[in-house]
Amino acid sequence: MSVSVKAAAGTGAVVLTAVGGYGFSTFSASGEPDWKPFTANNLVGKYSEKTKAYFVGENSDAWWDWSYKNRWSKDKNENRALHHNFISVTSGKDLKDKCVAVYGEEKENVTSAYQNGKYLELEVWRYCSPLDTKPKTIQETGERTYEGSVSSYGWVKKEKFVSVTIEENNLFWELRDQEFFGLGNYSTILTDNSFDQSKDSLFHNFFKNKSFENRPKIKDVCGDAYKMTDTQEAEDKKVQVNTIIKFCSLEGN
To answer: Which domain of life is it from (predicted)?
Structure first.
């Protein structure tokens, strides 16, 4: 596997491309089938506009059958309260159709607390995503890692950035790593991995100086970025807040 870093002509931006690929599934140990992410376009203003990479697409029937059996049916049999369109599901295909429908819903029609006639966000991630739960931000975890530096990005933008400290976010970071390099589930998907190599030297040096086999993970880079501030002076360790949002949150895709 090799990763190449290319500078976009005249822009100073860097685009990362991966050559080759691995035939593995991040989730194979759990018996979860391989899956392909949702890739529809024209999702501006829709619920999955920024998060579609973490929802399962239509061409993953084995995964939908698995989710129906191991998640929805399990919850139903345990008398877990179900809501809106997830109250009644008859098959993996039916579950797929319901999830694809919610991907295209307006964002306000998916809520964190149940409202009559709207989707419950917890159920969308439970039945439609390999992650099972929506990744938690620094603020949502209640962690206090960055409060000693109130000007750090991890404190100022704690409501946006995905936590790097809690175990339940680990699968998200594994997928984000695959997505960034175009590996695994994302090997056939074109993603925007560009950054400014002078203003985002933290990311640039990360890829320039590390071989693929020995490199840290994107989770590590984001953790470093959270500790930084917008007044960082070291030339070899700079990053723009919009670049952190792009790679370390659910708002940057």
So the answer is: Bacteria
- Phi, psi (rounded to 5 degrees) for 86: -95, 5
Rounded to whole angstroms, the Cα distance separating 79 from 19 reads 47
Amino acid sitting at position 62: A
- Report the alpha-carbon distance of residue 7 to residue 106 in Å, rounded: 36
Residues 6+ apart with CB under 8 A from 147: 155
The tokens of 200 are what? 């985002």
How far apart CA 218 and CA 225 sit, in angstroms, is 10
Q: How far is CA 245 from the centre of its chain?
A: 12
Distance CA 202, CA 68 (A): 42
pLDDT tens profile 161-175: 999 999 999 999 999
Q: Are strands 195-196 and 13-19 parallel, antiparallel or unpaired?
A: antiparallel
What are the φ and ψ backbone dihedral angles of 170, each rounded to 5 degrees? -60, -40
Which sequence spans correspond to the domains of the chain? Answer: 1-24+134-253, 56-128
Residue 119, both tokens: 């989707």
Query: Is the Cβ–Cβ distance between 8 and 194 less than 8 Å?
Result: yes
Backbone angles phi, psi at 50, to 5 degrees: -100, -10
pLDDT band at 201 (very low <50, low <70, confident <90, very high): confident
Vertex 191, ends 43 and 161: CA angle to 5°?
A: 80
> Residue 121, SS3?
helix
C-alpha–C-alpha distance, residues 220 and 92, integer Å: 36
Q: Kindly give the pairing relationship between strand 119-120 and strand 110-111.
A: parallel
Mean of the per-residue pLDDT values for the chain? 85
Query: Does the pTM exceed 0.90?
Result: no
Residue 46: is its pLDDT beyond 80?
yes
